[in-house]
Structure formats: structure tokens, C-alpha cells
Amino acid sequence: MATGEASYDPSGYWEGYVSGTNRGPIILCIRKDGDIWHSDAIFEDFAFGPTLLTLRGDIKGALAEFRIVKSYGLAPVLPLDGKVTIDFAKGPSEVDGKWETDIGTVGVCRLYRTRISNLRCSVRFAIGSFMLLCRRRKAAIYVALVLVVAILDLASVLKMSYQSFLLLFVPAVYIFRPQIEELIRAFRVKRIGPVELDQSLPSAEIQNLIKQQVAESLRFMYLNNFFVLRTKFILDWLAQAGTVTLVSFVQYASSIGVPVDNIKVTLDALTQTGCARLEGERMERITISELGQGYVRHLRG
């Protein structure tokens, strides 16, 4: 990226908010290294939790343009590239900006120069990074904790009752939920009593049947037995919209209760059955197919 002489020095800490397809507070540390401006940011996404961002760019006059070079977070889809444009013309302590990424997310931001100390900002970055690490590595941390408690109990350092030790395994149902879901999908369990489970991938039998020129009612019967209720809701929403971005799909699926770990499986189920297809250079858009439209009409009666 070309560099230029900046007429305004934004070095230091900024905090504010981001709105658009993603929303939440953000704090940035802007610094200059040679002719290149760098920024580290922690974005507290209301939907997916903390995301760490590394940006690099240039400032010409009052206009700054940064590129996202690294992102690390909990969202199902993270950007590989993106652009943040900030206009410093409004004033030295309050600025507005726009942002967009390669996965179709867009929005605006407003930042305020903060007067808090470097130590306090560093602590906030450290806490955010630690929380993100804990959430991404919660399974390993949990297993290590259980092993430590078990070893201490065997060494008579701790004296735990049998009931107390069993309570240590209660969080395992939540922590190892993706692995439990994989077992459920492997054994093709769709319901446990009245409880409807998450969407699974279509079997080879269903995929072959969809591709064959069989009666439409038969295909719809198979789809009706295969799709869980939430997937049908998503397909109905997709039929009304026609084409949506991948980010909108993720946000809508999350809003109706699809677990984050099952969103990609749900999308794969829709595409592999031929009810929807991915479009765009980066496959960032989802479009409902004629089969999907027909199935939605069938559902609506």
C-alpha cells in the first residue's frame, strides 16, 4: 500500500462503537512504525463475543485507510480481508468511519480518543485476549482442571465426596456439546422424545433421490422428514429474501436458536439437497433454488 505524510497524528488509544451487520463496543491502539500505520483492536461483538483485529494502513491528510490483516475470534466466519476508512476531519477527539469485509459485512463506526492510561488500556486488551483464549480452549482447560482435582483427591490433598466429584462432570454436557452432537449425527438421532435435535447432513440416499427425476411429492416427503423445524424456518425466510449474504444467514440462524456449531451443517444441508446454492467470487451469497422455492410452497400448503 502506498504511504503518505499524515497531517494529523492519531497515535494512542481510541474507543467507541461499531454498528451495521455486526454491533458492539471497540477499543483501538493506533501507532506508527516507519511509514506504515498499525492498529490493534478488540471488538466486543454482541452476537459472537470478543474478536481481536490487526490492521495496517496509511493516513493522507485527514483520511485514514486501514486494511484488516488478521482476525481472531469466535464467530463462525471471520474475514480474511477488509477495509476501515476513518475521517479525522470532524475533530481531534471524535471521528467517524466506515468498514467492510470480504465476507459481506458492512457498517459504520464512531471513535473517541480516550484519556485513560496506557496501563488500563493494556489491561483491557489482556483481559479480552484471555477471555477469548479461555472460550476457544475451554475443553482443554476443563479436562486439565478435572485431572488436577482427581490427582489431588488421590493424593489426599483434597477430600471430595463421591457426589461432589460427580458434580465436576455436569459442565461437560455444555463444553463437549459439539462432540455430543457429532455422535448424535453419526447415529442419525433426530429426536429424543418430544425434543427436536439439530440439523444433520443429508445421507447419500437422500442426495441421490433429490438428483433423480422422481415425483415432486416424493422428494418433498423425504425433505420433510429430513429437515428439522429450524431449517424449515430458515428456508422459508430465504424464500422471501431470495438471496442473502453469508453473514445475514449466520445472524438469522443464530436468532432462531441454531447453535453456532450447527450453522455450517445447516447451510451444507441446504446446499447438498439442492434447496439453495452459494454464489459470488468468494461464495459469500446464498440463493434459494427452484427446488427450495417449490418445497417452501409445499410447506405453506
Write structural notes for this entry.
This protein has 301 residues and is an alpha+beta fold. The protein has eleven helices and 13 strands. It has helices at 118-136, 138-154, 162-167, 172-175, 177-186, 204-211, 216-226, 229-241, 246-255, 260-272, 290-300, and strands spanning 12-20, 24-33, 36-45, 49-60, 63-73, 82-87, 94-101, 106-113, 191-192, 195-196, 243-245, 276-279, 285-288. Strands 1-2-3-4-5-6-7-8 form an eight-stranded antiparallel barrel. It starts with 11 loop residues before the first strand and ends with a helix.
User: Percent range for helical residues?
Assistant: 40-55%
Beta-strand residue percentage: 25-35%
Distance between the termini: 56 Å
- Enumerate the spans where pLDDT stays under 50 for 5 or more consecutive residues: 1-6
Spatial strand arrangement across the major sheet: 1-2-3-4-5-6-7-8
Series of secondary-structure elements, N-terminal to C-terminal: EEEEEEEEHHHHHEEHHHEHHEEH
Q: What is the number of helical segments per DSSP (H or I, 4+ residues)? A: 11
Derived from helix and strand composition plus strand pairing, the structural class reads alpha+beta
The whole-angstrom Rg is 24 Å
Which structural traits does this protein have?
flat, 301 residues, 30% strand, alpha+beta, 41% helix, 3-stranded antiparallel beta sheet, disordered N terminus, 8-stranded antiparallel β-barrel
Question: How is the secondary structure organized here?
Answer:
Blueprint: E1 12-20, E2 24-33, E3 36-45, E4 49-60, E5 63-73, E6 82-87, E7 94-101, E8 106-113, H1 118-136, H2 138-154, H3 162-167, H4 172-175, H5 177-186, E9 191-192, E10 195-196, H6 204-211, H7 216-226, H8 229-241, E11 243-245, H9 246-255, H10 260-272, E12 276-279, E13 285-288, H11 290-300
Antiparallel strand pairs: 1-2, 1-8, 2-3, 3-4, 4-5, 5-6, 6-7, 7-8, 9-10, 11-13, 12-13
